[in-house]
Amino acid sequence: MNNQLLTSLSEKYGSPLYVYDSEKIISQYNRITNAFSTVENLKLNYAVKANSNISILKLFKKLSSGIDTVSIQEVQLGLEAGFEPENIIFTPNGVSLQEIEQVANLGVQINIDNISILEQFGQHYPNIPVCIRINPHIMAGGNHKISVGHIDSKFGISIHQVPHIKRVVKNTKMKVNGIHMHTGSDILDIDVFLAATEILFKTANEFKDLEFIDFGSGFKVPYKEGDISTNIEELGKKLSKRFKQFCKEYGKELTLMFEPGKFLVSEAGYFLAHVNVVKHTTSTVFASIDSGFNHLIRPMMYDAYHHIHNISNPQGRERYYSVVGYICETDTFGSNRRISEIREGDILCFNNAGAYCFSMASNYNSRYRPAEVLVYKGKDYLIRKEETFDDLLKNQVIIDID
User: Which positions bear N6-(pyridoxal phosphate)lysine (predicted)?
Assistant: First the structure.
């Protein structure tokens, strides 16, 4: 997306602002489907937690995607967007049996990741098929906060507890129609990922009525020039061959599932913010913007890198800046970054803002959450309004204080 268009959108809708490029979303979706084109039954379920705007969900529905959800609210958003229950999978962690029951009653595919809930659900609903999330004890994420396949992870049922799972299934006579894993986000080494798939294949052989195997996702996208990313094409070639071999051994054509989120929407997103102040100290030049970690928390929470460029002065002489926000505590988006000369009033653009940016935004410091814009078929659409002061007060109950 070019600087001129982004600048015009900032002028039209204000700042800060999230902008999403539908063409990039579509191309990323097609990239995965093409990589696994030789698999007879392939199903992508977009991970709603990455970006849950209902217009984004509608775009994925148009692409024939399913969705992966982690809360009943995400399930309800999916239904509101027009997804059929059978195209929604519910993969929560640590939620109550009551929430799982509510979702099951909507006809959504349930994915269970702990023995306690598995046993309770099987006792009450033996005729509702479930998927079981396995922890393969392989850590493939790029940051310890997003690596979820290790032995001490709260996610999934340990592969060492498979005999326990089988005992519960036998005792309750419940139906298991899927096996699932998710090792973590930002996968770099596909051989590590493939090693985890072998564990999943071995586990799948323990259950004779499967309909699908869900390999999760966590595919890495590039964050800066020269950055490495998951080689989807190579993974597609290797895993497709192995999956088809397994289906032949299993004696049944299963569905191969993935649940990509960041891979599909991250690069499609841009976050725009105006520079309020350029401040010089003894050793640093700060560019302070009209936003903070209330709108883009990933650099502070995950040490995530977001490329920052000055779209108001792209040809300016490059200098070094620390880009910071207006939150009243440490709020640094990037330290000592080489950026075209920044002046007060310039617009800075943060790349890779399509995933886990608005969805993790807050009203910290009583700031408003920004607007969201989708560019679709060459036209820009406002898909979420900027919040107002009334939104801050909306659910507050004001009492008389004498």
Answer: 49
Active-site annotation, residues: 328
Choose among 224, 326, 310: nearest CA to 266: 224
Q: CATH 2.40.37.10 in the chain, residues? A: 266-393
What's the token pair of residue 346?
């310039």
Write out the E strands in 121-211: 130-135, 157-158, 176-180
* The two three-digit tokens of residue 228, written as one number: 């490495």
Q: What are the per-10-residue average pLDDT scores of the chain (402 residues)?
A: 96 98 98 97 98 98 98 98 98 95 97 96 97 84 44 82 96 97 80 92 96 94 91 96 98 97 97 98 97 97 95 97 95 97 98 98 97 98 98 96 88
Indicate the annotated binding residues: 218, 298, 302, 329, 356
Using a cut of 0.90, tell me whether the model's pTM lies above it: yes
Q: Was domain 22-262 assigned CATH 3.30.70.20?
A: no
Q: Where in the chain is the domain with CATH 3.20.20.10?
A: 22-262
Whether the CB-CB separation of 144 and 221 falls below 8 Å is answered with no
First-last CA distance in the chain: 55
CATH topology for 266-393? Lyase, Ornithine Decarboxylase; Chain A, domain 1 (2.40.37)
Using CB atoms within 10 A of its CB, is residue 208 exposed (0-12), middle (13-18) or buried (19+)?
exposed
Which residues make up each annotated binding site for substrate? 298, 302, 329, 356
Q: Whole-angstrom Cα distance, residue 178 to residue 135? A: 14
